[in-house]
Amino acid sequence: MSTLTTALLSGAPGMAGWAVHVWWLRARLHTARRDPLTGLRTRDSFTRCATVLLKDPRAVVVLADVDQFKQINDTHGHAAGDVLLKATADRLVHHIGRFGVVGRLGGDEFAAVLLDEHGAVADLLAVLHGVLARPVEGEDPAVHTTVSLGWVRATDFPADDLSGLMRRADEAMYAAKQARAGLRHAGLGRLFATVTGRRSGRSGARTAAPSVGVAV
N or C: which end of the chain has fewer CB within 10 A? Predict the structure, then answer.
């Protein structure tokens, strides 16, 4: 047996152990980047992917927030709330994830960045809004609610980074929630429904009325 072969065989157990260790580290990293309930990317993982997508001029930022989620938890229990969150995540991935990335920011709030390849994002989100309001299949029909959506095209605000665009989308989403409109596009126009845009206590809240578009 050659010296090289002997050396390789003698080192095989160590190499196998290292391979297992690397696999374990990768599995742990993947788990850390995923929300345990919904399987969506966590905030940090979402931010990394979303930042890359924003380099594309077709990028659109979307914020989604489940309406009356506390009432669902209080009335039907936290298990029912978890089912609703999982269904919302699955529906977001089905309608948006194939065009971009979806993440759970925490609680009942989700975010997405997608590429509007055919200029039909408004139609896509209008359909999605209806889908998100459907009862969860196989669950109590009473466990359902609507989801408010706000969105913004990155090219409309070229000076904004991801954080800035998410603030605008969040302001539009909150305006939609306040007006019970379901969906709003952050663009031209002035909003007078709220002077803060973002909900009380959240970072990035403004003291003047934000600029948002009409409901679509």
Answer: N
The catalytic residue among 108, 140, 156, 170 is: 108
Distance CA 205, CA 167 (A): 8
Q: Is 90 a catalytic residue?
A: no
Supply angle C-alpha 175, 176, 182, rounded to 5: 175
* pLDDT score, position 22: 35
> Tell me: the pLDDT tens digits for 11-46?
666 655 544 433 333 434 344 579 999 999 999 999
Contact 84, 66 (CB under 8 A): yes
- Among 51-60, 74-83, 162-171, 194-203, the minimum mean pLDDT is found in 194-203
Cα–Cα distance between 48 and 45 in angstroms, integer?
A: 5
**pLDDT at residue 42, as a whole number:** 95
List of E strands, 23-75: 59-66
Name residue, tokens 């969906």.
183
Alpha-carbon span 109 to 170, nearest angstrom = 10
